[in-house]
Design brief:
The chain is mainly α and about 650 residues long. It contains 30 helices and two strands. The chain starts with 11 loop residues before the first strand and ends in a 6-residue tail after the last helix. InterPro entries: ASCC2 (IPR052586), ASCC2_CUE (IPR041800), CUE (IPR003892), UBA-like_sf (IPR009060).
C-alpha cells in the first residue's frame, strides 16, 4: 500500500506480478494502467437525421462512461491512466479540436437528447483536465511541485494550443477555475512561458496568412512591406471560391475568439503578446483585411442566403473580439500597473498614450474601438491615477487624439452615402423595409456593420424592436415648381414656352435670317408706326418740345453753365437767370424755399478803396466779374476758353 503523506512521485507499491509473485513498483508505472480503450470524439451531426443522431448518442455515451470511470479512480491509478494511456490523450485531444464553439452551438440539431449528451461530455472533459492540472488533491494525495511540472510538460499533457482551446471551450462560466488551473500550470512549470513566447509569432502568422489569401499581402512579406506588381493575379476575397471564403472566415473567427478568451482568462500572457508587437499587427490587419472581407460577403452572390448571414455574423463577431483583445492588452500592460501603483508609473502612462497615438492612422479600427471602449474613459481613468504627472490641461490635449473625423461621424448621412449604406444592408437582408433600416441607421449613428450585426443577433434597441421591419421609406413631399413662382418681364409673351403649348417657330432663328436684305430692313419703318400708340399718352410733352424756345438755350450759352463752378457770383447769376425762365408763380415758390432766396443784383464797384488800405470782398468779386465778362462785347474768347480749360483741369493753374 502507498505510504501516507509521501508525494506520489516518491511512493512505492507492492502488488502481484504476472506469475502471481508479488513485486514492488513505483506508484506511477505503465504496468498499473488499466486496459481501457477511449474512443475519439465526433461532433453532433449537422443534418440531424435519425440514424446520425443515434450514432452520435451511442458514441458519446461510450466517452462519457469512460471519463466518469476515469474520474472515479484513486489518485495514483488516475495518474497512471493519464500518463501512460495514449487512447485517453487522443480522446481528450479530439474533443479540444472538434467540439463546437460558441457560434457553432446554434447550428446543432434541436434534439434534446443530443444537447443533453453534449453537455455531459463537455462536463466530463472539463473535470478531467481540471484534475490533471491539480498537483495536490489533498494532504495525502499530492505531487512534488517540480516533479509535477516535469510530468505534465514532458508527457505533453498540456501545451499552449491545448490551453488556448481550454479557454475558448470552457471559459464561459468557468473563468475563475480556469484561471487557477492555468496559473498553477505556469507556476509549476515556467518552461510554458518560453513556449508561449515562441507561439506568439505563429499566432501572428494567422493574420498574415489571411491577408495573403485575400491578395492583400505577398507570400512571405510582412504587413509593412509593399505588394509586388504581380500580386493582383492572385485570388482575392471577391474572386476566390465560396468554400475558400468560408474557410477564411471560420479560421479568423476561431482564431480571434480563442486568443481573446486566453488573454481574458490568463492576463499574465499579455506581456508576451505585447513584446512581439501584437497590437500593431492586429490593428493593421483590422484596417486592411476587415473591409475587404466585409465587401466580399456583401457583394458576392450566395445561393444560400443563410450562409451569407452566417458569414457576416462570424465576421462581426471576429471584429468585436479583436477590439476586445486590444483593450485587454492595453488594460493589463498599461492601465493595470498604474492603478496598482507600481513603480515607473509615468513610463506606463506614456506607453498608453503612445499606443493611442499609433492608432490614429487606423481610422476604421479606432472608430470601432471607441464605439466599444470610449478613449475618453481610458484617458479620464489615467488622469485620476496620475494627476500630478499629468495635469488637466495635458489630458485635455490628449483627448484630441480622437480626431475630428470621428466626431463628425455623429452627423447625419444624406445623399449618395446614405443610399450606399442602405444598399449594403439590403444586399444581406433584402426582406427588411427601407424605412425600418433608416431608423436603425439613425439609432446606430449610421454604422451599417453594427446595424447588420445586431439585427442578425436579435439585439436591437427596444425602440427599434417595436417597429415594423417591413416599414417602407417615407415619401418625400414634392416642393412647388420654381417656374410657378418665377416673375419675369417676358412672362406671357409669344415666346414664353413655360406658359404656351405652341410657339411660332418661324419667328425664331439663329444668326441672320435667310433672304433678309439689310437696306430693306433699315428702310422698314413699321415699328415707328407701332410705337405711336405707346407715346400717345405723352402728347403734351411732345407739344412742349415743338414750342422749344431757342432763346432759352442761348441764355445758358451766354452764361457758360459749368465753366466756372467755383465762382459764387456766377452760381447766383445762373440761378437767377434759370428762375426768370420759369412761370411767375413757380418762380415765387422757389424763392421761398430754403437756400433759394434771391435779392436784386446790386451795382458793381470795381474802383474800391485807395491803394494800400485793402479791398472788400464785394470789390474783389466785382473786379473778377468784370474781367470774366469782357468776352461779351469783343473778341476776347481766348481768355474765356483759357479759364474754362483751367477750371476743368486741362492746363495747370
Amino acid at each position: 500500500m502507498a505510504c501516507a503523506r509521501v508525494p506520489l512521485d516518491e511512493q512505492q507499491v507492492t502488488e502481484p506480478g504476472p506469475l502471481g509473485k508479488e513485486r514492488t513498483l513505483p506508484a506511477l508505472h505503465p504496468d498499473r494502467t488499466e486496459e481501457r480503450c477511449f474512443v475519439p470524439y465526433k461532433p453532433p451531426p449537422e443534418d440531424g437525421s435519425p440514424a446520425d443522431v443515434e450514432e452520435f448518442l451511442e458514441h458519446a455515451r461510450f466517452i462519457t462512461e469512460d471519463l466518469e470511470w476515469l474520474l472515479a479512480l484513486p489518485h495514483d491509478k488516475f495518474w497512471c491512466q493519464v500518463v501512460f494511456d495514449e487512447s485517453l490523450q487522443r480522446c481528450l485531444d479530439s474533443y479540444l479540436r472538434h467540439a463546437p464553439r460558441g457560434l457553432d452551438l446554434s447550428t446543432l440539431p434541436s434534439s434534446p437528447a443530443v444537447a443533453d449528451m453534449q453537455r455531459s461530455i463537455h462536463k466530463a472533459v472539463f473535470l478531467t483536465f481540471l484534475r490533471m492540472a491539480t498537483h495536490k488533491e489533498s494532504k495525502e494525495h499530492f505531487f512534488t511541485p517540480a516533479v509535477f511540472g516535469e510530468i505534465i510538460y514532458e508527457n505533453f499533457l498540456f501545451d499552449i494550443p491545448k490551453l488556448l482551446d481550454l479557454c475558448v471551450l470552457f471559459g464561459k462560466g468557468n473563468g475563475q477555475l480556469l484561471h487557477k488551473m492555468i496559473e498553477n500550470i505556469f507556476t509549476q512549470q515556467p518552461s510554458y512561458y518560453n513556449d508561449l513566447d515562441e507561439t506568439v509569432p505563429t499566432v501572428l502568422q494567422v493574420f498574415d496568412t489571411i491577408l495573403e489569401k485575400c491578395g492583400l499581402q505577398c507570400e512571405g512579406a510582412t504587413a509593412a512591406e509593399p505588394m509586388k506588381l504581380n500580386a493582383h493575379k492572385k485570388p482575392t476575397a471577391m474572386t476566390m471560391s465560396q468554400q475558400e471564403l468560408l474557410d477564411i472566415i471560420l479560421y479568423l473567427c476561431d482564431s480571434t475568439t480563442t486568443i481573446n478568451a486566453f488573454l481574458d482568462i490568463f492576463p499574465a500572457a499579455c506581456s508576451s503578446f505585447q513584446s512581439h508587437g501584437f497590437l500593431s499587427s492586429l490593428t493593421s490587419f483590422y484596417e486592411t483585411g476587415v473591409p475587404d472581407l466585409e465587401k466580399a460577403i456583401r457583394k458576392r452572390n450566395f445561393d444560400d442566403k443563410s450562409l451569407q448571414e452566417d458569414l457576416w455574423k462570424r465576421l462581426s463577431h471576429s471584429c468585436r473580439k479583436m477590439v476586445e483583445t486590444v483593450h485587454l492588452l492595453l488594460h493589463h500592460t498599461c492601465l493595470q500597473p498604474i492603478l496598482e501603483g507600481r513603480e515607473n508609473m509615468q513610463t506606463f502612462a506614456e506607453e498608453l498614450l503612445q499606443y493611442f497615438t499609433s492608432f490614429l492612422p487606423e481610422k476604421r479600427f479606432l472608430t470601432d474601438y471607441d464605439e466599444q471602449f470610449p478613449v475618453a474613459d481610458d484617458i479620464s481613468l489615467l488622469q485620476q491615477a496620475v494627476p500630478i504627472m499629468y495635469p488637466q490641461p495635458a489630458f485635455d490635449a490628449v483627448c484630441v487624439l480622437v480626431p475630428a473625423w470621428f466626431q463628425g461621424a455623429m452627423c447625419p448621412v444624406i445623399g449618395a452615402e446614405l443610399e450606399s449604406l442602405l444598399s449594403c444592408i439590403r444586399d444581406l437582408l433584402p426582406d427588411l423595409g427601407e424605412g425600418f433600416l433608416l431608423e436603425c441607421l439613425k439609432e446606430y449613428n449610421y454604422n451599417s456593420e453594427l446595424v447588420i450585426n445586431d439585427i442578425l443577433e436579435d439585439r436591437l434597441a427596444p425602440s427599434l424592436a417595436k417597429l415594423d421591419r417591413t416599414m417602407p421609406r417615407p415619401v418625400k413631399e414634392e416642393l412647388p415648381a420654381v417656374l410657378n413662382n418665377r416673375s419675369n418681364v417676358f412672362d406671357g409673351d409669344e415666346f414664353d414656352v413655360f406658359r404656351r403649348e405652341q410657339v411660332d417657330m418661324s419667328r425664331i432663328w439663329k444668326g441672320r435670317r435667310k433672304g433678309e436684305n439689310v437696306r430693306e430692313m433699315l428702310n422698314d419703318k413699321r415699328h415707328v408706326a407701332e410705337q405711336k400708340a405707346r407715346y400717345h399718352a405723352y402728347e403734351t410733352v411732345v407739344d412742349e418740345l415743338d414750342d422749344y424756345d431757342d432763346e432759352y438755350d442761348d441764355t445758358y450759352d451766354m452764361n457758360q453753365v459749368g465753366a466756372n463752378d467755383l465762382d459764387g457770383d456766377s452760381l447766383l447769376t445762373r440761378r437767377y437767370l434759370w428762375c426768370q425762365t420759369l412761370s411767375p408763380t413757380l418762380h415765387s415758390r422757389l424763392c421761398c424755399l430754403p437756400g433759394c432766396s434771391f435779392r436784386p443784383e446790386r451795382s458793381s464797384n470795381v474802383v474800391g478803396r485807395p491803394k494800400g488800405q485793402g479791398q472788400t470782398t464785394e470789390t474783389l468779386l466785382d473786379r473778377r466779374k468784370k474781367e470774366t465778362n469782357k468776352s461779351r462785347g469783343a473778341n476776347h474768347n481766348r481768355r474765356s476758353m483759357a479759364d474754362r480749360k483751367r477750371n476743368k483741369g486741362m492746363i495747370p493753374s
